[in-house]
Design brief:
350 residues, mainly beta, seven-stranded mixed β-sheet, five-stranded mixed β-sheet, 24 strands, elongated
Length: 350
């Protein structure tokens, strides 16, 4: 067994990828994860060259509470997930971009990584915990070796990281004492229009891209449940239909659409089908191809107006879109969206 060749620890350290590598920050939301790096090297007995395997070292190492050398109290180890963004509260307050990077430049024979999170079931209030290391192995002679780098541990070199945890961030509507989620819109040029009936006055057509976003330069809408990649061949039906009698001959029809495209900065095309009713195919008015230039921190909706010769059959439809969304740190918010005949907009945020 390769542990038989180890005489002592040569060096050992735990660190984060923050500029101050002894610090880390987490939101208490069951999603946000912090990456912890661990490096360790051994002195080998004279005349030997083989140390323990990577797996043996991984099995022998564990994370412990720095204060009492016991199990972690507020943190749990997990596998890497979606929400591993580095949160720096000082940058959040200054609205600067994070330049966090590991300050650790040492070389270790073995390097391991751990992801930890702070479960809401263990604590929902702000707290901090120091995370130290424990090495525990037994050689083939039955000799057990235990070395702890905690404040009360038996190893002479102390190394730990201090993880500060914060209550989950809350989002809300304008006027609420929370970070707001709001919206903006932009008119887009008409492109690739297919007129199904021929009874149109296209002079008043308009097409709009509407974006929901977090009104804060540091936090970003990052993901929402059920989102998908864009598909230009997928023709989207409206969730909202409104008809307004405008002139003796012409009726204005407004549709709102939710293409359900994932968050992120990229360009894509969307095909929308304007309808006066959702009952059958005969209520299809026209199909339009819209180019969307989406940025980070955006969830996209679309709106369309067209004028049609007097519609004898048209049924208004006012459905709502419900979105469980998350920022880059896994803080969740539930958005209910509706339309008013001009834009899509949040109805409630919780």
């Amino acid at each position: 067994m390769s542990w038989d060749n180890v005489s002592s620890i040569k060096n050992i350290k735990i660190w984060t990828d923050y500029s101050d590598s002894t610090q880390g920050h987490l939101f208490i939301n069951n999603n946000h994860q912090l990456l912890l790096n661990v490096g360790i090297s051994f002195n080998l007995k004279s005349g030997t060259t083989a140390g323990p395997t990577q797996q043996e070292v991984s099995n022998a190492l564990s994370l412990i509470n720095d204060q009492d050398s016991g199990p972690l109290k507020y943190l749990k180890i997990t596998t890497a997930g979606r929400y591993t963004a580095i949160y720096d509260p000082s940058l959040a307050l200054s609205a600067a971009d994070s330049d966090a990077a590991s300050a650790e430049s040492g070389t270790y024979d073995y390097q391991l990584t751990y992801y930890v999170y702070s479960p809401t079931s263990m604590n929902a209030e702000a707290h901090a915990e120091g995370v130290a290391l424990k090495l525990d192995y037994t050689d083939t002679s039955g000799n057990r070796v235990v070395q702890e780098t905690s404040a009360t541990g038996n190893y002479y070199t102390k190394t730990c990281v201090y993880v500060t945890c914060y209550p989950a961030k809350l989002y809300g509507m304008k006027g609420e004492n929370r970070t707001n989620i709001t919206y903006s819109s932009k008119a887009v040029a008409e492109a690739d229009c297919w007129d199904y009936s021929g009874h149109f006055n296209h002079s008043g057509d308009s097409f709009t891209v509407i974006w929901f976003y977090i009104d804060d330069p540091y936090f970003k809408l990052f993901y929402f449940d059920g989102c998908s990649d864009p598909d230009e061949n997928d023709a989207h039906n409206p969730y909202y239909i409104y008809k307004e009698h405008s002139k003796t001959k012409w009726d204005i029809v407004y549709n709102a659409f939710f293409p359900n495209v994932k968050c992120g900065a990229f360009d894509y095309g969307v095909q929308i089908v304007l309808r006066s009713d959702m009952d059958d195919s005969h209520t299809t008015l026209l199909t339009e191809h819209i180019e969307v230039h989406q940025q980070q921190n955006q969830i996209t909706f679309l709106g369309a107006h067209t004028s049609v010769e007097s519609l004898n059959h048209a049924t208004d439809m006012s459905n709502r879109v419900r979105i469980q969304a998350y920022d880059q740190f896994g803080n969740s918010t539930y958005i209910v969206a509706f339309s008013n005949g001009a834009d899509a907009m949040p109805l409630s945020i919780s």
